[in-house]
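Sequence of ATP-grasp domain-containing protein (Methylopila jiangsuensis).
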Amino acid sequence: MRVFLCEFVTGGGFAGKSLPASLAREGALMRDALARDLAELPGVTLTVAQDPQAAPCPFGAAAEVANGDPWRMWEREAAACDLFWPVAPETDGLLGRLAAMGRAAGAEVMAPSAEAIRVTSSKSLTAARLQAAGVLTPPTFPPERLPPSMPGPMVSKPDDGAGCEATTLWPAPPSPRDVPATHVLQPYVRGMAASLTVLHAFGRVSVLAANRQDIVITDGAISLAGLQVAALDRAAPELDALAQEIAAAIPGLDGLFGVDLVMPEDGGAPVAIEINPRVTTAYVGLREALRLNPLTLLPPFARGPIEPPPAWPVELRL
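Predicted 3D structure, token representation.
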């Protein structure tokens, strides 16, 4: 099986531009973890997209992107492979565009459906879909529609964004003119920040790891400093139920996906904050946590459902 792995940041997404150091480091961590796991699978011949500015991937053959149009190279490599695995932020439609490109090239694509990517790429669409399905999630408003009676604190973030990009904590509800029109506002949920690494395959939804996030707030700016992969009990009924409900609410959310959530400090049910329709940074520690190659649980590398093994905590610093 010929596999083409394309991590956007290290694989040419910044061709002809300066490569952002922090994005490149996180991208390389995910790329190398996936490439290692792909390369050791029997019968796999791996090619990895490579920006010369980025650290080289130690696994697979490099498909180098020069200063030209990376999309041409990506499309060529996707057309030559059996399986295309895009790793990209959902921002600006990047993940959706890459997945569509791979499917148009005739490759099997390791990504959710186009509709699932479209919904989860928007904070407001995600919130509306989850609320309609009865999944606990914060109410989400465009700045100009924030109810006057809504108390603080509030969080603002881009409606079309990934990770903690431009995410801000406001002690009191901000004036609409202080928040970009492309952002959304949500009530701040007090509690422990966490995430789920979820596998949806063979008609089953399994939480592979429940992770604790180390969130840092500096002058209102919210960022992720690290996480403890598998630090929480993935078998907790409320976490399993949340994963099941999300998969049912967003059809086509297949393969590996992530859920950002908060475990409220009052002991209430977990609150879903965001859905990531892709591999997340937690994957970097997943192999060590499960003590096996996680890809052996996924189609097309697994022939049928396999019960995930116990998970052990792994510390990741970013």
